[in-house]
């Protein structure tokens, strides 16, 4: 099974999306889906003295301008593990350019966790967490001599639109023969 291509994006997308975790919160290991096998592999260990501020993963059957699935940062209380499937609610989107390409990140919360039941939009998230995520992405590749440009945050509606756009782009690129 290929996690990217065989797992659905979620029956109620973009309101509730499936997120496959690649990297648990607190890790410096950069795991990612191997596009050929569909397995989670260790890509590298971050060179900078930073760690992922939330679980990090992808929305299956999505595609973005950088050639990868749409990325997600999942705000939760306890880290999960690589390969874990989480139903999540998009609440914001963080604009970013990595290596000269758009590389937006969806911010989401677990859909079935009562702790996050009242977090529906970016304005409901503690402001310091937003600063942590922004700072992480501004600096996580600094010691690799790679440039990342952090952009603006937008709320839930923009996040849901970004999810829809990435599903459509996936369909245009991978469902042509069907």
UniProtKB/TrEMBL annotation:
InterPro entries found in the cross-reference section: Pyrophosphatase (IPR008162), Pyrophosphatase_sf (IPR036649)
Q: Which family does it belong to?
A: Belongs to the PPase family.
- Name its species: Herpetosiphon aurantiacus (strain ATCC 23779 / DSM 785 / 114-95)
Q: Which gene encodes it?
A: ppa
Annotated binding of Mg(2+) 1, by residue: 66, 71, 103
Pfam families, alphabetized: Pyrophosphatase
Quote the function comment for this protein.
Answer: Catalyzes the hydrolysis of inorganic pyrophosphate (PPi) forming two phosphate ions.
Keywords for this entry? Cytoplasm, Hydrolase, Magnesium, Metal-binding
Q: Which domain of life is it from?
A: Bacteria
GO CC, any one term: cytoplasm
- Identify which cofactors the protein needs according to its UniProt entry: Mg(2+)
Chief place where the protein resides:
cytoplasm
The name on file for this protein is Inorganic pyrophosphatase
**Broad class of enzyme this protein falls into:** hydrolase
* Catalytic reactions of this protein: diphosphate + H2O = 2 phosphate + H(+)
């Amino acid at each position: 099974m290929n996690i990217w291509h065989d797992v659905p994006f979620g029956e109620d997308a973009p309101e509730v999306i499936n997120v496959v975790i690649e990297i648990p919160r607190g890790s410096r290991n950069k795991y990612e889906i191997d596009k050929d096998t569909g397995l989670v592999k260790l890509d590298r260990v971050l060179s900078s003295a930073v760690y992922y501020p939330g679980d990090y993963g992808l929305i299956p059957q999505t595609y973005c301008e950088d050639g990868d699935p749409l990325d997600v940062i999942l705000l939760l209380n306890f880290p999960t593990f690589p390969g874990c499937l989480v139903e999540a609610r998009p609440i914001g989107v963080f604009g970013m350019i990595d290596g000269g390409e758009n590389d937006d990140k969806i911010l989401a919360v677990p859909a079935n966790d009562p702790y996050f039941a009242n977090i529906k939009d970016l304005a409901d998230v503690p402001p310091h967490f937003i600063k942590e995520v922004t700072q992480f992405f501004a600096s996580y590749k600094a010691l690799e001599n790679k440039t990342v440009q952090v952009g603006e945050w937008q709320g839930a509606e923009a996040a849901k639109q970004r999810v829809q756009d990435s599903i459509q782009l996936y369909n245009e690129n991978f469902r042509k023969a069907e």
